[in-house]
Design brief:
It is a single chain. By secondary structure, the protein is mainly β. It has one domain: YVTN repeat-like/Quinoprotein amine dehydrogenase (Methylamine Dehydrogenase, Chain H, 7 Propeller), CATH 2.130.10. It is built from 1 helix and 28 strands. The protein has a 4-stranded antiparallel sheet with strand order 1-28-27-26, with no helix packed on it. Strands 2-3-4-5 form a 4-stranded antiparallel sheet, with no helix packed on it. Strands 6-7-8-9 form a 4-stranded antiparallel sheet, with no helix packed on it. A hairpin with a 6-residue loop joins β20 and β21. It starts with a strand and ends in an 11-residue tail after the last strand. Belongs to the WD repeat ARPC1 family. This is Actin-related protein 2/3 complex subunit. It is found in: Cytoplasm, Cytoskeleton. It comes from Gossypium hirsutum (Upland cotton). It holds the Pfam family WD40.
Length: about 375
């Protein structure tokens, strides 16, 4: 088993993020608050509760260099939290949204962050020193439905998005006065803010979760049709692969190396995808053991289990009285995993990541002791 630590923090966790030194974790326990826990003497203690939002917090990101937390919520607002002495002080973000904010990510240089929304827009936010607030430039009229996930390219300019219109898009986010010309993509034709670099129509269903590889050469995103898509050479002629699997859909995805991707979702068990020497991606295995063999039970009971796991989740991430989600033997999570985060420290050879889900658990996974996966790390 690759799980090295399991922590039951709440009944349901919407999203989570780690402090730069990984000694603290911030998460939303399916309400309008952000709880921060710190590891003290091998025990997790609640040290802060951030209270500013009016509705469920749908996204959290903790910057690794500046130690700032950004949160977004269904209340259409966002706040940047700065540590001042013993307290976290919120700074206003001008989003101007008329629908819920759904996801947020700091850019690699941490001078911007992107917010995806139910208003079919993406807000790219930057700090205005003279007014002491964060303002946004908005990418409009590009998405046909809610923006479910955003991911920054390592160059700090390109931004990938997924949407419930089934498409993955890549945009330029160059902002004059914030970004430097040296970081702009392409010397001959520099794309302006909001210019669409590519639109990928690979999925026939909702698209959730998108990430770039560490080098920025490969893009991966997942669809609600139990497929994951890998795209190389982002531009006019991208090279795309898709991998279909027999299990329930994924909700999020993470590159742990150039050759390995972890997908998490409704199967409550992280899935490993890897590329061979020729660059062909395929599903390798679950990190936890499966309950049944591939032959399995009859299709009727398989459907009932799938239906229960996918749809029978009550308000706090628990099953209802009629259909009980199946518990996978060896699987650490008991319900849908909706968030995954990398836990690697700079210079460290270990490959760790964390997952959180509707069962209220935060689980830390270590791939270093997985002998069959070392060739991909």
């Amino acid at each position: 088993m690759a799980a090295v630590a399991v922590h039951q923090f709440a009944q349901c966790i919407t999203c989570h993020a780690w402090s730069p030194d990984h000694s603290m974790v911030a998460f939303c326990p399916n309400n309008n608050e952000v709880h921060i826990y710190k590891l003290v003497n091998d025990k997790w203690e609640k040290v802060h509760v951030l209270q500013k939002h009016d509705q469920i917090v749908s996204g959290i990101d903790w910057s690794g260099k500046s130690n700032r937390i950004v949160s977004v919520s269904h209340d259409r607002n966002s706040y940047v939290w700065n540590r001042e002495g013993p307290e976290w002080v919120p700074t206003l973000v001008i989003l101007r949204l008329n629908r819920a904010a759904l996801c947020v990510r700091w850019s690699p240089k941490e001078n911007k962050f992107a917010v995806g929304s139910g208003a079919k827009t993406v807000c790219v936010c930057y700090y205005e020193q003279e007014n002491n607030w964060w303002v946004s430039k908005v990418i409009r009229k590009k998405h046909d439905s809610s923006v479910t996930s955003v991911a920054w390219h390592p160059n700090n300019i390109l931004l990938a998005t997924t949407s419930t219109d089934g498409k993955c898009r890549v945009f330029s986010t160059f902002i004059k006065g914030v970004d430097t010309r040296e970081s702009k993509t392409g010397s001959s034709s520099d794309p302006k803010f909001g210019e669409q670099i590519v639109q990928l129509d690979l999925s026939s269903s909702w698209a959730f979760g998108v990430k770039w590889s560490p080098s920025g050469n490969t893009l991966a995103y997942v669809g609600h049709n139990s497929m994951i898509y890998f795209v190389d050479d982002i531009g006019p002629s991208p090279l795309a692969q898709n991998v279909a699997f027999r299990n329930l859909p994924l909700r999020d995805v993470l590159f742990v190396s150039e050759k390995m991707v972890i997908g998490v979702g409704f199967d409550c068990n992280p899935m490993v995808f890897a590329a061979d020497k020729s660059g062909l991606w395929s599903f390798i295995r679950f990190l936890g053991e499966r309950k049944e063999s591939l032959s399995g039970p009859k299709s009727g009971s398989q459907f009932s289990e799938a239906f229960g796991k996918l749809y029978a989740q009550a308000k706090h991430g628990l099953s209802n009285d009629t259909v009980e989600p199946s518990k996978i033997q060896g699987a650490v999570h008991d319900n849908c995993i909706n968030c995954i985060a990398l836990l690697n420290k700079k210079g460290s050879q270990t490959k760790r990541f964390s997952t959180s889900g509707m069962d209220g658990k935060v689980v830390i996974w270590d791939l270093g002791n997985q002998q069959d996966l070392k060739e991909y790390l």
